[in-house]
Predict the structure of Acetate kinase.
Amino acid sequence: MIILVINSGSSSLKYQVREGDDVLAEGLVERIGEAEVPDHAAALDRVDREVAEALGERTIDAVGHRVVHGGERFSEPVLIDNEITRAIERLNPLAPLHNPAAVTGIRAITEKWPDLPQVAVFDTAFHRTLPERAWRYAVPDELYRKHGIRRYGFHGTSHAYVARGAAELLGTDAFTGVIAHLGNGASVAAVRDGESIDTSMGFTPLEGLVMGTRSGDIDPSILLFLLREGYSEKDLDTLLNRNSGLKGLTGTNDMRSVSESADSGDERAKLAVEVASYRLAKYVGGYHVAVGGAEALVFTAGIGENAADFRAAVVSKLGALGLELDESLNAERSKHARVISTPSSAFPVLVVPTDEEAAIAEATAAVVAGS
Ligand code: AMP
């Protein structure tokens, strides 16, 4: 089955065409809304031309959309119809930057290829198994009932994919342990018997770990303080979502340059690595308890798969759990799932590469085949 995977942003459209593990085409249309690409329909025309060139006589069988927010309704991928599209649209207030773009992408495809099956794959879905004690904020119930304020969690497609990969590597049926997805956005998930039972991102992707440009956990009173100091809502949004995290601590959100600067003795970079790795180590300790004893700690995504020194900084803080990295295995570069701990480590530390497009394509093929 040939699947077109679409990741719609407000002004960009990323796509990949896959047949099983083979990537037949991929690309990115940017600056949607400007003269050359006035709207998502125009972006899609461009994708259509590029895909047709790559496929020749063959054609796409289905489309899989990455949808950031599935709210409380969606706990698995679904075949899209008008009612589903409207349901995704109703979740726009929960993900104002992301869901409207996905809806626009879905409608543009419905218009262009009305007979092509489309599947929505939600970033929140994997975390629908969180118990209430993990998703509740300790605030009046009205906030939940009126505004849907609760913890949802994100990166679910990646966490689910990596949990399956880790189980395969460990030779178990279902994964129990802790997964650290460390990309520009970062989150950690506590997984028991293959199900997410806690995760560090909350109502939005701002909660939790130190990220490329996001602060992660802070005392909410800081917002109140800054409001009194004259900051606007937009200022606070920009401050915490775009100018904080590694960028706020060092001036750059790129872990490669942070690592290089730290290596050459830059104090701010060294501190940033310490703050970020300490925060993550605390979550790992907590989630080890939450899952009733992890069978493995797994690193994934850009930083998790590539930044050996950052992994070492995290694991060095987990001595109390009996974790021990094998320095040469940790330093090895590879695209494959692998163990990077010593045989005497209390439980293995793994690197399992993520592939969200592959996961979306697999889910899409499964939904279409089953419909
Ligand atoms: P992602 O969002 O998964 O693409 O991850 C992006 C992050 O991974 C950025 O902070 C990059 O600096 C980081 N990254 C990618 N490659 C490396 C590398 N070789 N060493 C350190 N960090 C890396």
Notes: The domain at 170-351 is CATH 3.30.420.40 (Nucleotidyltransferase; domain 5). Residues 267-290 form the longest helix (24 residues). Residues 183-184, 212, 254-256, 259, 301-303, 306-307 surround adenosine monophosphate (CB under 6 Å).
